[in-house]
Every structure is written in structure tokens, then in C-alpha cells.
Design goal:
The protein folds into 2 domains: 275 residues, 2-Layer Sandwich (Nucleotidyltransferase, domain 5); 202 residues, 2-Layer Sandwich (Nucleotidyltransferase, domain 5), CATH 3.30.420. 37% of the residues lie in helices and 20% in strands. The chain contains 20 helices and 22 strands. The strands form 6 sheets. Strands 1, 2, 3, 6, 12, 13 and 14 form a 7-stranded mixed β-sheet that branches. A 6-stranded mixed β-sheet has the order 17-18-16-15-21-22. A 3-stranded antiparallel β-sheet has the order 4-5-8, with no helix packed on it. Strand 2 and strand 3 form a beta hairpin. Helix 5 crosses helix 7. The longest helix has 18 residues. The structure holds D-xylulose. The site of D-xylulose has 12 residues, from helix 13. D-xylulose binds next to helix 13.
Length: 519
């Protein structure tokens, strides 16, 4: 019975997902919450330390304490770690870890009998790691863009303009603020490559999926871009190992884990990737045109693309897929549930009343429309409070349909840069339980919508990556198949009779948005 382990090293916890590929089932899912286990030892809240002025860091040593606690918890839950054939992982994206020249020897010489964190404490040239929540690097973003010849050059080169949370700007800031510590840095890695390095006992390269979130990888050649590295910090290429394919094994697990936790000495470790790229696999989005939409506090749309197309409007991010063939496009709308709840509350309704209002109103809403930007919006880029109504403010059913149609039409318009023929839409998140909402998305996109229930797509995606990495002759659709099925009976087909209504609405809404949102 081969088992595969996916480890999700996320912002607030370390989670293990174990799959059994004979039965096609997930047999364990266990999580170690950082605050609960290590809040007082490391002084973290929600897994991070907020150092003020946008500086948000975490502790690489804490992640390793959590890794050991996770293995013990999995064993307590009855999981036979010795039967795990391969491990892959997922890490919160963008965070950077800085190691000194002693790291390589310490990693290879790990001894059982002493906790890992005690053995590893001397390997850092910086004790903390800035993570994706750090927003203190605006200046470095501008400098990196200028350094490569402008933001469009960086976008076309790396797939993304400079974002404050991305790794390159974090590295540049470290080099500028702490030049001596930067000098002591022999290896710069990401959360993903760092955790994999500890498991293998050697410095593991950053994979293509997570390297895409650094502003430093050439998105087409999938290698570090010399000009982006030069614009980031001097001598940086000496502090990185080459980008690796996600599917090429990093090595076998270090004997420490065999002795201390009972792993098999044959257990293969694949490179870890970013959590969003792993979620792409965990939702089974392994063919171009497969798109997922997560309807949560914010709504996130992500898609599998054949080519690394970029958004010149700065509407999204592009990452290489860990299937080593496709690309991932990701866009995030701030006004997800927030907008749905604002309109529901305006009319004093519960979700039942909201749904009834959707049921009784007609597709196309008799031409009534709304721009529902109650909070600042990323897609399109507008400040807070841009709520424009082309309808009566007190028309409950009209407002409710208008907010859902605005969200569905916006997801259609603002995903055009991906150049995809959207053939299916997988919807997850709280609001995906609402069939009336899903009908609107199916009709606007003109494709079937399936509901997906997932608690940890990133961890599951990592486990599937471990399976595929260990048995590469299996196709990706076959590897994902048993684990990535929509909820039985949840598929909603588009209603062809609404096509022309929604074609008209797409036109009208685009014009309405252009009129009120300055580009
Ligand atoms: C993506 C991003 C976050 C982190 C969270 O660009 O910053 O989703 O990956 O873990």
C-alpha cells in the first residue's frame, strides 16, 4: 500500500495530508497550529510577528519544531510513516530564508537524539524570515522595476510586476538594511525550499512554481533571470542554487527522520512548491481552460494556462504550474462575501432570503446593474466606496441579483487576458453551497459549474505531486482523478436560453465599469 504525504507549511500552521493511491482516498489530515503549540515560545500571533511599519516576519526554526510535532501527531493518529513512499510540500509563497555558510554541513550531519531546532539554530544569517504579509518594500519594488528597465519589462520577463510581498523586494531590503548579515548569507531560499532542505539534509533548490513568486525567474526559460537578480542585490546569483523542475526528486529523506520518526530510508522527497501552485494541482486543474473560483471573504479565480500570458493591466499573477508543463493565472477580488453580505444586510435578509430574491429575479435583471466595490478593489483597481447603481436603491431583488451578476460578469471580463476558452468552472468556498449563485456563473461563462469541497487544496496538491513524482508515468489527470472529484450531483449546466441576455450584459457592464472606473 504506497502512501504519499503532502506537507503544507502555511502562515498559521503545518499540515500533513496523506493519500493512499490504491484506494484513491485521503487517509489522514493533521495540523499543527503555530500559536497553539509555539505561541509563547516564539511570541507569534497568527503564526507571525508584526514588527510595525508593514514589516511582518516569522521564525524558520518554529516551522521545523512544527514539522517534528506534525510527524508525531500523524503517528498518534495511526498513520504508518514507514509506508510513505514519497513526500512533497507546499509553502506559503514569497517568504525568504537566509542561511549562512555552516548550513550545508549542519544539514547533512543531523544526528538523532536531539531535536532538530537545537541542531539548526546556528545555520541562519537572519533569525527571522519576512513573509508574504510584509508590505514594507514599496521602495525596493520601484528600484527593481527601474533596474530591469521598467515595470513592463519586469512583467514580461518574470510574469509579474513587482509586488511588495514578493521575495526579490524582500531580499533587496535585507541587503540594504543589513549589509553585513547579507554578506554572511551563503544561501537564500524560500519557505518551500527551506523545509525541503531540512528533510533531505542538503540545500534543495527553489522549484519553478515558487520561483515564479520571486520577481527573479524568467517565466519562459524557468531559470533565474540575470538582469532581475542584478536589479535585486549584488552577488545574489552566488547565493542561489539553480531553479529546479517541481517533479524532479530532491533526494531521499535524511537518516535523521528514519531514526527519529520511523520513515523508510527509501522515502523520496520532491521539491516543495508554493501553496497557490499546489492548490492548482489539488483542485485537479491540470489542463488548459480548467478554472477554479473560490468564493470566500475575497473571491479568488485561478486557472491553468498553456502559455505564460501576463496581465498588462496588472490584474493578476502568473506562476509556473508544478506539473512542469502549464502555468497558473491567479486573480483576487477583494469584494467577495463582503459585497454579498453588504447587500444582504442592507435589506435585513438571511441567506435564505437572499437566495429567494435571486430565484424570483430574472437573468439580465431587466438591465439593472451595480458596481459593488464596498472595499478597495484590486480587479479592477479602484479605491473604497465605488458603489454605483443603475437601479433603485430600495429594490431588494434587483440589488441582490445585481451584485451576483456583477461578480460573475467581472470574472468573465477580467480573466480575458488569460486567453482561455473556459470549459469548466470549479467553485469552492462558503458561497459555493448556493445553487442560485452557481447558476449565474454557469450562464455568464456558458460552461458547466461544479462544486468542490476542499479543506486543504494545497496540502492535497502536494500529496498528489508526491505520487506523480514517485510514479511519473501516470498522467496528471489520472493522478488527480480519484482525489479531485466535484461533489456528486453538484454540476450545474448553463441554460442556453440566457446566452444572448448575458452577452448583452457583458457588453453593458463593461461600458458601465469603464465609465466609473478611471483606467
Ligand atoms: C499569493 C500570496 C498568498 C500566500 C499565502 O501570492 O501571497 O496567497 O501564498 O500563503
Amino acid at each position: 500500500m504506497p502512501l504519499y504525504l503532502g506537507i503544507d507549511s502555511s502562515t498559521q500552521s503545518m499540515t500533513g495530508v496523506v493519500i493512499d493511491t490504491d484506494s484513491g482516498s485521503m487517509i489522514a489530515e493533521t495540523s499543527i497550529n503555530f500559536d497553539e503549540h509555539f505561541g509563547s515560545a516564539y511570541g507569534v500571533t497568527n503564526g507571525v510577528v508584526d514588527l510595525g511599519q508593514g514589516v511582518v516576519h516569522s521564525y524558520p526554526l518554529m516551522w521545523i519544531d512544527a514539522l517534528e510535532a506534525l510527524f508525531e501527531a500523524l503517528k498518534r493518529d495511526g498513520c504508518a510513516l514507514g509506508e510513505i513512499a514519497a513526500i512533497a510540500g507546499s509553502g506559503q509563497q514569497h517568504g525568504t530564508v537566509y542561511l549562512n555558510a555552516s548550513a550545508a554541513d549542519t544539514l547533512s550531519g543531523l544526528e538523532p537524539g536531539m531535536p532538530l531546532s537545537q541542531q539548526l539554530q546556528g545555520i541562519f544569517s537572519r533569525k527571522t524570515a519576512p513573509i508574504w504579509m510584509d508590505s514594507s518594500t514599496a521602495q525596493q519594488c520601484r528600484e527593481i522595476e527601474e533596474g530591469v528597465g521598467g515595470s513592463n519589462r519586469l512583467l514580461n520577463l518574470t510574469g509579474n510586476t513587482a509586488f511588495e510581498r514578493f521575495s526579490g523586494p524582500q531580499i533587496r531590503k535585507f541587503y540594504q538594511d543589513e549589509p553585513e548579515a547579507y554578506e554572511q548569507t551563503a544561501y537564500t531560499g524560500l519557505v518551500s525550499s527551506y523545509v525541503a532542505s531540512v528533510l533531505v539534509g542538503k540545500l534543495v533548490s527553489v522549484d519553478v512554481g515558487d520561483a515564479s513568486g520571486t520577481n527573479m525567474m524568467d517565466i519562459r526559460s524557468k531559470t533565474w533571470s540575470p538582469s532581475a537578480l542584478d536589479a535585486t542585490a549584488p552577488g545574489l546569483s552566488d547565493r542561489l542554487t539553480p531553479v529546479t523542475a517541481s517533479g524532479s526528486p530532491a533526494g531521499t529523506i535524511h537518516p535523521y527522520f528514519v531514526a527519529a520518526h520511523g520513515f523508510s530510508s527509501d522515502c523520496t522527497v520532491l521539491p516543495f512548491s508554493g501553496d497557490n501552485p499546489c492548490s492548482l494541482i489539488g483542485l485537479g486543474l491540470v489542463e488548459s481552460g480548467h478554472v477554479a473560483l473560490s468564493l470566500g471573504t475575497s473571491d479568488t479565480l485561478f486557472a491553468c494556462m498553456a502559455e505564460p500570458r501576463v496581465s498588462t493591466e496588472g490584474e493578476g499573477c502568473v506562476f509556473a504550474s508544478p506539473d512542469d508543463a502549464h502555468y497558473m493565472a491567479l486573480i483576487c477580488y477583494m469584494n467577495g462575501s463582503l459585497a454579498r453580505e453588504a447587500v444582504r444586510d442592507q435589506f435585513g435578509l438571511d441567506w435564505g432570503g437572499f437566495t429567494a430574491a435571486l430565484e424570483t429575479s430574472l437573468p439580465g435583471n431587466d438591465g439593472k446593474m451595480m458596481l459593488p466595490f464596498f472595499d478597495p478593489e484590486i480587479v479592477p483597481n479602484v479605491g473604497a466606496g465605488v458603489v454605483r447603481r443603475h437601479l433603485e436603491e430600495e429594490d431588494a431583488a434587483g440589488n441582490i441579483r445585481a451584485v451576483i451578476e456583477a461578480q460573475a460578469v467581472s470574472s468573465h471580463i477580467h480573466s480575458r487576458w488569460m486567453g482561455l476558452d473556459i470549459t469548466s468552472l470549479y467553485v469552492t468556498g462558503g458561497a459555493s453551497a448556493n445553487e442560485e449563485i452557481l447558476k449565474v456563473f454557469a450562464n455568464v461563462h456558458g460552461c458547466p459549474v461544479h462544486r468542490f469541497e476542499t479543506t486543504n487544496a494545497a496540502g492535497l496538491g502536494a500529496a498528489i505531486r508526491a505520487y506523480h513524482g514517485h510514479q511519473p508515468s501516470i498522467s496528471w489527470p489520472d493522478a488527480c482523478g480519484p482525489f479531485c472529484q466535484p461533489v456528486a450531483g453538484s454540476t450545474i449546466q448553463p441554460d442556453p436560453s440566457t446566452r444572448s441576455t448575458y452577452d448583452d450584459l457583458i457588453e453593458a457592464y463593461s461600458a458601465f465599469e469603464r465609465e466609473h472606473v478611471a483606467s
